[in-house]
Fold:
Amino acid sequence: MDAVLFLIFAAIAVVCALNLVIQTHPIASALSLIGVMASLAAIYLQLGGEFIAAAQLVVYAGAIMVLFVFVIMLLNEGKERKAKRRLWVTIAGLPLLFVFVALIHFMILRVLPPSDSVKFGAFTGGNAEAIGIKLFTAYLLPFEVTSVLILIAIVGAIVLARKEVD
Amino acid sequence: MQLPPFQMIAGVPLTWYLTLSAVLFALGVAGFLFRRNIITVFMSIELMLNAVNLSFVAFSYKLKQNDGHIYSFFVMVVAAAEAAVGLAIILTVFKNRQTLEIDEVSSLKD
Amino acid sequence: MQLWLIPLLPLAGFLLSGLFGRRLSKSAINGIAVGSVLLSFLWVLKTLSALGAFSGGLTGAPYNEHYYTWIQSGTLNIGVDFAIDRLTAVWLMIVTGVGLLIHIYAVGYMAHESGYYRFFAYLNLFMFFMLVLVLGANYLLLFVGWEGVGLCSYLLIGFYFLEKFATDAGNKAFIVNRIGDFGFSLAVFLIWAHFGSLDFTTVIAKVQTMPVEPNVGWITAISLLLLLGATGKSAQLPLYVWLPDAMAGPTPVSALIHAATMVTAGVYMVARSAPLFLHSASALDIVAIIGIGTAFFAATIGLAQTDIKKVFAYSTVSQLGYMFVGLGTGAFSAGVFHVMTHAFFKALLFLGAGSVIHALSGEQDLSKMGGLRKKIPITFATLMCAGVAIAGVPPFSGFHSKDAILAAAYEHAPWMYWVGVITAGMTAFYVFRALFLCFFGEYRGDPHHHPHESPPSMWIPLAILAVLSLGGGYIDIPKFLTPMFGEPHEGEAWLMYVSVAMGLGGILIAYLFYVVSPAIPDGLARAFRGPYRWIYNKYFVDEFYDATVVEPMIDGSRELLWRVADVRMIDGVVNGAGATASAVGGLLRRAQSGYIRSYAGWVVGGAILVIVYMGLKGGL
Structure:
């Protein structure tokens, strides 16, 4: 049962990712990315990461991707023009990708014992309470630092994107 | 990748999650290298970050600790900040160059 | 005995004149220059009499003074030593005595020249080096003096440095000398290699224990290389070409350096190395052959020259050839004897010529002289004394020394005697040709010139030298040098008569040609136009050397060394280093394409490499 669920969401994720790479119009890519994120949230749930799944949907898909969509619509560039692709890229591109993936896969296999398996609900430390405790005790400093980081990002974004005052 | 026997219902091998992460990462790299629209490139970067997040969470399950979740959380925060600033920069570039092609923005060549 | 004073007094004169001469008055410079040489001469007299040279002493080992060790390296030990034996004594007397007379003469001769203090500074420096040369007790000190006199010769020949022909002559002298010096240096190295020391006494003692070397071997090689050095310095074939050109210098220079002292350095060196030459079967023969060849060759050239100084220059080359014949036939003392008498009459000839030139305000061409004997009587009288001396008329000095050499030549190889006798005839002829053209007949020069006699500072040395030329033959040098070179050889009487007859005959023919009927020589010149042209142009030797040696060397340097080695190879390497750096930089610059995607591509490529590497290493 778990495997079937996993496979469904994994397939959705991969298809959406492929779509992101293949589509010419940026808005289609953005929507595909939202699809990827949603399926990933489901997979997080399988792994016991409830808080992370929620954060993914709220922050990533809900805020960041919406920002992306806004910007795309603002710029309104339209489809990407056809590029003259060099021959070696067309021929070697896909195989190289496969090679890349295969490499990583075999590395993983070498390290991890094959009997490791995931059961839904086996890990309960991913709920908000546990995460919260960890965040505010062991990782307090990085937490505060990231808040400063967000502040900097806000200031930077405002400065960069404002209109010139003549 | 070996298919476990009829205990398929019992659990999912961890390696599958990691392989999924690898595939998503590879797709992100492909998009990053082969797309010419800046925003699409940016979204490929976000895809790569997501893949990494998945990897973190998978390992955190294996180790039965929630530190991986924390890291994942931080990755998200940083991705948010980066997206904000990055899109602001893209807006500025668009204002100056009137183009979103990544090949046009090459003033730093020799 | 403070031998070091002898050379150092002129050196002090050089330093004073050289450093402060600009601010000193003429009389002060005179005082310094002449005074230093005078003091040196007096010191020589004192030293020699103290050593008993004038009273039969100074036989056996030379008197040696060691000052300090110059080079101490491994087994090489060379000290600064001065030594006097009878051979050195002869040279010391000649150099300081005749040198003194010439310095006094130069005071009058150079009175109107610019660069007065510079002239006397150089002259004193020359005296220093020449004295070091003769006093040195090892080959290295001799070489120091050798090089030093070469340097002073260059400086003094090119004294009128604003004239190109003077500087060219100076260059020529120095460069041709250098070729000889090359041979000398090689000889010094070989001496060191084979005898382990450069001291004269040590080397001579060692070589006396060796057998006479048949044909070619080390001793012969050393001797021939020393001979090469001597041909350069003493103007023998084939390196004599610099001496006639050296007449570009002031006349006192010609007298001192190129007649009496420097050019005899080669003779000194060969005489010093006599045991070396004696232990080689063929070296001495070659010395004699070169000597007689040079004597004859130069005499033929002197027959047709029109510049009075050039006549005497070729005469010097010829007489030096005689000295080498003396050395080469084993009559070393005869050669040295001729050095002394030659110093007297040749210095007198040059100084007298200088007096004539001075009287005529710079005219040197014989065809523009004539009938001067009434106008400059003292010069005329003294030059005539020199003439009879060089012609070998008895009982004057030249006769004694030349006769000794010819006797030894006959003993060695009769054909050398006959060639020498013919050369003696030619010598008498061309010297008297010059004298008759100058003093007899009608004055053919510029009517505006009024020939006047020289001042006393000039004619007093002439008079002293005249006395020495006439009576110098009675200073019995061969007997003086017996402890060193053995008993002088007495020749048969008829040899003497023949050579005297040739000398007198030469004078007579010259009288005939140039006083009685001047038309004869012109007629002869026209009749034998070809040979005349050859000897007038000194057998085109200079042109020949130019074409075979000088031009190829200049071309070779330009084409090969400059264009190829310097420009292409060395500059190529240096520029090439820069060009390579630039090229590599250009290559690396391609990575900075400005395209973000290519950067990303590199990043991914690098990441893959790292992963592969880690995978191969066997661990994440």
